[in-house]
Amino acid sequence: MIKKILIANRGEIACRVIKTAKKMGIKTVAVYSDADRDALHVKMADEAIHIGPPPANQSYIVIDRIMDAIRASGADAVHPGYGFLSERAEFAERLAKEGVAFIGPPASAIEAMGDKITSKKLAAEAGVSTVPGYMGLIADADEAVKIAAEVGYPVMIKASAGGGGKGMRIAWNEAETREGFQSSKNEAANSFGDDRIFIEKFVTQPRHIEIQVLADSHGNAIYLGERECSIQRRNQKVIEEAPSPFLDEATRKAMGEQAVALSKAVNYASAGTVEFIVDGERNFYFLEMNTRLQVEHPVTELITGIDLVEQMIRVAAGETLSITQDDVKLNGWAMESRLYAEDPYRNFLPSIGRLTRYRPPQEGTNAEGIVVRNDTGVFEGGEISMFYDPMIAKLCTWAPKRIEAIDAMADALDRFEVEGIGHNLPFLSAVMDHPRFRSGAITTAFIAEEYPDGFAGVAPDGADLEALVAVAAACTHFSETRATHISGAMDNHRRVVSPDWTVLVDKAEYPVSVERRDEDSYVVGPREAEGGLALSGRLEVSLGGWRPGAALIEATVDGRPVAIKIERTNKGYRMRRRGADVTLSCLTPRQAMAARLMPEKIPADTSKMLLCPMPGLVVSIAVEEGQQVEAGQTLATVEAMKMENVLKAERKGVVRTIAAKPGDSLAVDEIIMEFE
């Protein structure tokens, strides 16, 4: 058996591998860049070795640096995680020459499947259904345009060595093909060191469903069911689940058997994933084979009970699979939400900074059998760097039924506390409550169709809004009552807290009356007042032990659990729950009357400025001072977290001044240029 594993990766996947290795009694070695000196995976490993500066192309993907670390540590095996060197055949070959086990497939399989052009040809030869397209090398944008027209719009422009949504664009016309071709080449070169591009037909109304395979070096291969990965943004998966709510048993079996056939055709040995696009008639087409552990592997582990990392280690050690196809049983339903350092209110642009608060929900199995799992590589006080993928954590839930797993995820997201950076928790919560998602009627176009103008948060209404109003009123009454207990000597002179309050939500007023039952329990009901909105009835509120200053309140409203992230502000309480982010002001009736007379503050006009939407590096400026630009014209390109972001003009205008130049590192909202 393997004695010491070096993990040639970072973040949550490095932590994930370390956990299984420790369970198996295997020593672990972490590698780290300057930016990761204090990272969680470094702290978890038995030993750690420094490998270079923060940029991945100077540290994590430099094979020689990893090989030096292997020799220095004496590791007899390497797990590559995903990304970085996980699908580099050269890396696997170098390990083999050193006599070090690669916890992944043979180099020949990586080479065959890692190249998307070659993999499609091999898949077709193995009898796997494939998407129409052009598999040859494309020289330039002119040839890309010609090929796209022949294939027929829309087309998908993809990096041959790509993955994780990088180097991938959808083009609906010639202009988008030209721009997408160049951006894809740039991203592919930066992320993979390989800028080859191919083009295939984009299947409209598709579902992204993938099959998990597991094979050993003795000719055995099985499939472990499927994962639905259709909730995507910019071709990057956001929410995954297993099994798929769309497949029937016959389609599952057909997809699984084709995935196994492809695995055997390339003598695959390890865990891998065969990805398919499935249309509305359950016709499926091969996309690619990922010759590594997938980000979303936990949902498969939750419904099968199989530790995929352990299986990878055992296969790399030469063991025969102890599991047959008949042993694979799909049990219950699992959800995974990818928590990213991306600001959903700024079109999901990357966010960096310090995690001033990081409190995941409690992991484990509760009394009802619901499972919560959180795979992460960060900790409170740690830094989210601009140099790497923006993933913070992967939150997973399991339940016997799909709707129960969704509800468990929504509840866990409500309890997940993250502060200090922009993050997509509100968006994930909103999806869990979305009727279309809950019904399972999803495609890869879900986000684009349901949030065409971006995500602006959720406006609570009905019982959800009334619950927030009642909790805010109860918290205010509790805090005011507590403030009267200044000193026992003043008990006889203590002021009486009025039961009458007006709760402001945006511009809406809710006159309420608060009745205190005991320290934690209140009844909040409508109060007769001129104007305002009335609660639908009297609501019983328990604050669940909350005290002023606590960031999470686990209240109950009329017996219904309501977890709310709560923060005191100069205006009242900021409350966040189920995708909503609202400020509620609790005022006395007299204060409410005065508030109506206050003038509204008008924000500064930035309509004639191009501001940097995220912390990033200016790659290029596409215009000059004095130049007239048209709506939709490219103005600048900013790179952040390995992704290029093209900034375009919102309207026709003339460039007055340009404040930034290529190579500049900008913060959020720094001025790039101004218009006349």
Protein described:
Helix content is about 25%, strand content about 35%. It is built from 17 helices and 40 strands. Strand 16 and strand 17 form a beta hairpin. The protein is globular.
State the CATH architecture of the largest domain: 2-Layer Sandwich
**Radius of gyration, rounded?**
27 Å
Query: What's the overall geometry?
Result: globular
Q: How are the strands ordered across the major sheet?
A: 14-13-10-11-12-15-23-21-20
Number of domains: 6
* SSE class: alpha+beta
Please report which band the strand proportion falls in: under 5%, 5-15%, 15-25%, 25-35%, 35-45% or over 45%: 25-35%
Helix segment tally: 17
Mean pLDDT: 93
Note the main sheet. 9 strands, antiparallel
User: Strand tally, please?
Assistant: 40
Terminus-to-terminus distance? 69 Å
CATH class of the largest domain: Alpha Beta
User: Share of helix among residues?
Assistant: 25-40%
pLDDT < 50 runs, ≥5 residues: none
CATH superfamily of the largest domain: ATP-grasp fold, B domain
Classify the fold: give the CATH topology of the largest domain.
D-amino Acid Aminotransferase, Chain A, domain 1
